[in-house]
């Protein structure tokens, strides 16, 4: 507690909460926004809490949702604390001024972790720096894995996404009491958190609740229902129970997590496989979120900040020495990437021509990153009438081989590079100058919608963080124009080449020379790639 100040008490529409003053800002941790999702509520949509009597103590992080631990290889780089307890639908608030008259901009954070791991208690996500700089910061826990994204015939889909909608609704109704402006809520999230935000801003239930959104390394998307259903059925087969929510709800929590980890261990962003994800449900997700945002007129007036890291794929491949293994696989890995990305050989051939120094692992990684991430975000920025801003994080980690990997930018966005958990990815000596640049851009965007560089247009301006301009001697941020355009143009050419009229093409299932079809060859390559163990889900 700050000397001479009593603990802050805020009277929200849901009840009074007592926080703590820490380093000059008021912090409220572990505030419940919905009832505990267990017992009869397990696998069901979130249930609102009635207003409570008395004062709820919000001095510590609340329970984290059930989740399996990271593998040893990934735990070396990523932290994921566990707080036991059932009341896991909770949120945290950092505010410079817990006064209803302050009307400060609000940033609401949704963590990543493949919808199976992560929580708001990760120290890198501490919201102090945002509150220090005049923004109310909120972070949210939501159900994960089969508890949050299992697909069952006897309960509505997407309970984890419904948790997020409940949290957003709570914030919209209560944040004014904590000094926030409910008309200036900016969602921001990374990886699965960004994918969630794509679905949230497109959801009918959230229209008018969000002013801006930041999607970091995650595009709006919906998973194939069959892929999610396969995860559930494989778990049910191992557990020897029906693939229903009722049957799963009777399973011990730890056994369920162990089974989930076993079934999902061979999934990977690079080769796909069964995994949990947001699905079209006719309710919260009535259509694919990317289509809704680019063609359906969803989220009118919502301004966007979109971006990625230069070497996203290195976090998927470096742990356990997998980068070298994929390099050794060579042509098999490239064939697997072609199958994953549904592209012909012209695309990887073009990447080799553009990057002759790159090995197979880099080509595979950039192919998959462009297909899954950069192309959808380009499409989103191109289609929106509202202002969009695009960035690329390019600073390479001080740890071997990680480069500018997935999630590395988070310690800079939150300005938490001093915590040991940030150094697990960045190493020692991360530049504070870069944190100052990125953090300030997010503050500006939340405050007035302008992060500090040109909005997206035909010239494709991209703010590069963590690299020096070719003609500059100093500085760690500059604007480049179309830095990924040459690579992404290859996909358009490939799609054009693939659009051959049927009478001019040879059916893939029956090649003229009797050789296996390309699709069969690529499926075989993917199976070989998975059997090597080169790509395992963390």
Automatic annotation (TrEMBL):
One of its GO terms (molecular function) is carboxylic ester hydrolase activity. Residues 493-524 are annotated as: Disordered. Residues 7-453 form the Carboxylesterase type B domain. This is Carboxylic ester hydrolase. PANTHER family: ACETYLCHOLINESTERASE, CARBOXYLIC ESTER HYDROLASE. PROSITE patterns: CARBOXYLESTERASE_B_1. Residues 493-512 have a biased composition (Low complexity). It is an enzyme of class 3 (hydrolase). Belongs to the type-B carboxylesterase/lipase family. It comes from the Bacteria. Keywords: Hydrolase.
